[in-house]
Amino acid sequence: MSDPTVDCKHCHGTGMGAGSSNDGMYNCAQCGGTGRQPMPLNPWHPEKDANALKHLGKLAEESSELTSACARCIIQGIDEREPVTGKLNRDWLRDEIADVLANIHLVRVRFGMFSDADAHAINERAERKISHLARWHAMGEE
After folding, report:
1. CA distances from 81 to 64, 66, 69, 71, 78 (A)
2. Cβ within 8 Å of residue 70, ≥6 positions away
3. What is the dihedral of CA 100, 63, 14, 24, to 10 degrees?
4. What is the pLDDT of residues 27-83, one digit of tens each?
5. Which residues contact 79 (CB under 8 A, 6 or more apart)?
6. Any idea where the domains of the chain sit in the sequence?
7. CA angle at residue 55 from 92 to 99, to 5 degrees?
8. Phi and psi at residue 23, in whole multiples of 5°?
9. H, E, C per residue of the chain
């Protein structure tokens, strides 16, 4: 094994460090090194394309609204109603899910994520996540 006090040739700079902290240091998780490594600098290059920003911003906004609908269902109950409008929380949740799905479609179109490889990668990831979360949800039912 390489000396853990020097940059790891396998994972330094990949963001795979376990034990990251706010001190800018991490322990090498890939090779098991326990020496404190300096976190690699990661220069940001913010998106400048106005149309791309609109697409991503709207997806973030709609995702936040979905988060709010989920929180209300948790706090008040999915079959309760919004106190002012009387809208059923279940209906609001359904509407926000639809809005997020619509925006996901538009983001995929905008960024050209409809190739066979993209569709395969998205579907494969989703299937793994569904399988994992189904097992996770079932843990409380045993």
Report:
1. 20, 16, 12, 13, 8
2. 93
3. 180
4. 666 665 655 667 778 888 899 999 999 999 999 999 999 999 999 999 999 999 998
5. 88, 89, 90
6. 1-40, 47-113
7. 15
8. -90, 5
9. CCCCCCCCCCCCCCCCCECCCCCCEEECCCCCCCCEEECCCCCCCCCCCHHHHHHHHHHHHHHHHHHHHHHHHHHHCCCCECCCCCCEHHHHHHHHHHHHHHHHHHHHHHCCCCCHHHHHHHHHHHHHHHHHHHHHHHHCCC
The whole-angstrom separation of Cα 13 and Cα 73 is 41
Both tokens of residue 116? 């066979």
22 close to 67: Cβ distance less than 8 angstroms = no
DSSP secondary-structure letter at 69? H
What's the CA gap between 103 and 101, in Å, rounded? 5
Q: Is the whole model's pTM more than 0.70, yes or no?
A: no
Residue 42: predicted pLDDT? 81
Give me the mean pLDDT over the 130-140 stretch: 93
Give Cα 17 distance to the centre of its chain. Answer: 18
